[in-house]
Amino acid sequence: MANPNSSRPLLNTYQAIVSTFSDFLTVAIHTILYERNIYPSTSFLSARKYNYPVRQNRHPKVCKWVQDAVAAVEAEILKGTVSRVSLIIYSPTSAPLERFLFDVSAFPHVPPSEALTLFEEPPGEPSLREQIEENEPRHSNTKVPVVDLEEQFRAIFARLAFCSSSLAPLPENCSFTLCIELKDEVGVDPPIGHPQPWIPAQPSLQPADKEQEAAVARDGGENGGGGGRRVKGSDLGGVRTTPVRSVEAGEFVIEMWIEEGKAKRELEDFGSTADPP
To answer: How far apart are CA 153 and CA 25, in angstroms?
Structure first.
């Protein structure tokens, strides 16, 4: 009888790694939208992915938006320019409340023209396909069956549900968007062109340059002496960070965590002040 794992795809190319991440990111976005009550729970369908129960929004426009956004992220990751991907939840006044971050900076550096090129085998080691067919799988630094990732993905979704239940509730009528953070490297330029699926994030969510960081430090305030004006980078890092999980399987390495922003703390402080004793 053939080994059931032998038919599973291998993460033996950069394209396979990016495609697997895109698939996971799509499920993660729907999960976060459900767990954080961005849409009514009745608008989500029960489904299974990675042999785990998940939720998917049933509205065609939401599904299309997620699909298009993830496709745009995948195109940029294939260029090797992305350091992090983040799903940002905004208040009704467009203040960032929560950021769900996916760090992909540890993905291998592969030129776009080599995305379909097979990774090299370590010297003297049989291919992973041969190991699986012989029913003697061994860990490899370059080739990992997707089945090895599914268990870790299931752990992330379970962790997301737990973390969301421990986070303070969000106000009604929140919005969300998907952002990418580019690598701080020579030759990495913003994805500007036509058509243009990306627009610059608000300044408070962009990394501050060293001169501005020094100026903020000299002013001694979060808002850089701007009378409440959010300066560049002021909403990065958040006031509370909740680790979710890291995933490491060969060349597929990501880390995920949640950041709660200053605006959310201000809402919580206002609510606690306004509540009667």
So the answer is: 10
Best CA proximity match to 87, nearest among 75, 69, 60:
69
What are the tokens at 195?
Answer: 């058509």
Per-residue pLDDT of the chain (277 residues; tens, 9 = 90+): 444 444 455 788 999 999 999 999 999 999 999 999 999 999 999 999 999 999 999 999 999 999 999 999 999 999 999 999 999 999 999 899 999 999 999 999 999 899 988 887 766 555 555 554 555 444 444 555 566 789 999 999 999 999 888 899 999 999 999 999 988 877 777 777 666 667 776 655 556 554 443 333 333 344 433 344 455 555 565 678 999 999 998 889 999 999 998 888 887 766 544 444 4
pTM of the model: 0.77
Structure tokens, 207? 């990394």
The span from the CA of 8 to the CA of 200, in Å, is 39
| Contact call for residues 37 and 180 (beta carbons, < 8 A) | no
Nearest to 103 by CA among 84, 86, 88: 84
- Cβ–Cβ < 8 Å for 156, 256: yes
Radius of gyration of the chain from Cα atoms? Answer: 21
In whole angstroms, give the CA distance from residue 100 to residue 160.
10
**CA–CA distance, 244 with 227 (Å, rounded to integer):** 35
Q: Is 92 left (phi over 0), alpha (psi -120 to 50) or beta?
A: alpha
Distance separating alpha carbons of residues 192 and 210, to the nearest angstrom: 24
**276 near 263, Cβ under 8 Å?**
no
Helix axis angle, 14-35 to 60-78, nearest 10°: 140
Q: Is the CB of residue 174 less than 8 Å from the CB of residue 89? A: yes
Tell me the two tokens of residue 118. Answer: 């097979």
